[in-house]
Amino acid sequence: MFRFVVRRLLVAGVTLVVISLVTFGLFFAVPSSPAKVMCGKNCTAADIAQVEQRLGIDQPLPRQYAGFVKGIFVGRTYGSGDFRQDCPAPCLGYSFRNNQPVTEIIAQRLPVTFSIVFGGAVLWLVLGISLGMVSALRRGTVFDRTAIGITLAGASMQVYFFGLILLYLLVYATGLLPFPSYTPLTENPGRWAVGLLLPWMTLGFLNSALYARLSRAQMLETLSEDFVRTARAKGLSARQVHTRHALRAAITPIVTIAGLDIGTSLGGTFITETIFGLQGLGKATVEAVQFLNLPVVMATVLLAAVFIVVANIVVDVLYAVIDPRVRLS
Amino acid sequence: MSLSPVEGVALAEIESTGEGPEQKGLVGRSPGQLVWNRLRRDRTALVSGIVLVLLILAAVAAPLISRLYGTSPSQQFGDLLDATGMPLGYVGGVSGDHWFGLEPGLGRDIFIRMIYGIRTSLLIALGAAVVTTTIGVVLGIIAGYLGGVVDAVIGWFTDVALAMPFLVFALAVVPTFSLRFYGPRDAIPTWFAVTTLIVVFAAFGWTGTARLVRGQVVSLREREFVEAARASGAGLWHMLFRQLLPNIWAPILVAFSLAVPSYVTGEAALSFLGVGLPESVPSFGRMIYRSIDYLQTDPAYVFFPGITIFALVLAFNLFGDALRDALDPKSSR
Fold this sequence. Notes:
Chain A is an all-alpha fold.
């Protein structure tokens, strides 16, 4: 188990280095200098050179990358003399727009995205898996057929359409809910939940359609397996057979997908945040891309990759915990 | 958001092995005819197939429709808007001349922009699906047949591509790529934007098909017919594309048909977030993004593009599922 985790971590590290190299190379391949963008129209060549020096982009690419990596682990210093700016580890640079440290931007935005994903994931997992399970157990009934129809439609529905429908119906037309907003959980848990209810419902309902389809198929397959028959033959109650034996086996592939989904979403729920005007990581990325704010884009791409890679490892370890047939080696 | 349809297919395909039993009748039928017959008998396939054909026809014949309808996608009808830029009349200005009403603000006709939107969307989605399937099939078949180092290297590339956060990356790459060739204020030609999108989808999308094909080839590799071909001195090219490929058309076809809707939504998501196509090109994502500001006052503006893309994706998904059933009747869903 320990060796497995160490090896996976090493592979994950290499993957992250590759991703950071690709992103880095790509951004600095942009022909127009970000210094020119930052400086404005009335800049002389000397001004631009000064800004470039301050940003550290006057150096050759390999050295810039080395500086970037060094900044993350031990911190770095930008510029010199009057323009000296110390950036302690983990340093991801400064925003080209307002010189705010990128780490600060991420620290502000991350809780918003985390909250959206947390509530949404709870909703889609509970709703999706229970719907799929009940459907599978009542295969062929009216309930099952209705569920199949709804989930099929739900799986083809898009966040940008469904979210707007909910927004119109629940906020504009009936006023049942306030327009979504973010209040930190520590400040006021009630307002936190009410403000995020709409994004949770949007993500929760849409994704639960996919999860219901998946868990129904898995459950049907597991129910036809020998060990379920054995459990029944032992005289266990239907409830025990279904939850303790069948569900546990059926849920393994769902854990994989849920882990990856949550990992990917943590990198930014772009469309949800855009629709509901929430200032999360996704919105920060979209804005940064519009203004070619490279340090912020770099940081968010890397962070999103970290979430995916970590989610992968967590899923593999969870696998072994849930399913005793899986041996990590 | 979740498991790509291609991988879903992979799971289903791995579980079921090979072709169903050939139906014995008085008349000999080819596998293609069998599939066609099964599809024709399937009501879902029939309905979704007809909807798809209609939508594709609308996309292909967009200029013709525009002429018959009497409106071009960029034509503005300012005189049909009130002083605040909202369309006059009911449901966002629906009338005999403007079936889906007008856009608030610019006053362009929504119906004809939708028709052109389907055209853009399908062009990109089909293009991306063809490119990704081709790359995926070639790499998957090579990795599966050769094994060893080649397999390991391709597998590693797949893993890295899968760890890349697609949406973030696409968001970052598309504008950078355009800026490499055009200045920040230049108008980016449509063909360039379309190619960029297809390239970005291709860079990420091939992994699912490659895994699927590799799995299939690995299970075929040790079969007698492969051994026979090898014994009779068949070259690598012949092995891969004459012996192996014809045996795995079914899963590839299903993966392809389910990849198309995922690119339709991918393109819409990107243009919704403001990257991809220039403002002048009609596209679903851009329309829906613009409609957010008018949601309270003119909900019809959200409704028409939203319901159209929903219908498009649903029809593709239903047809893909039906196709899988027809190609492989034993698989249980």
